[in-house]
Amino acid sequence: LDLLEAISRLPAIHQAVILLRYYEEASLAEIGAALDLPLGTVKSRLHHALAALRREPGLVNLFAMGGDS
After folding, report:
1. What's the mean pLDDT in 31-49?
2. Which has more confidence, 64 or 48?
3. What is the DSSP string of 2-39?
């Protein structure tokens, strides 16, 4: 399974935070400003997106369990 394919299967709200965080290297505050979201919402969406990606069988080793910030 390809990483971009796995990301494309996420809900749009989760895709946005993943792409901004890891492809654009935006800070959590920058993501919040770009998406007009509170910091807590950004953190929650990032956490849920990474959890979903960790559940993908082909991506198990790609995302280490650890801090999302």
Report:
1. 98
2. 48
3. -HHHHHHTS-HHHHHHHIIIIIS---HHHHHHHHT--H
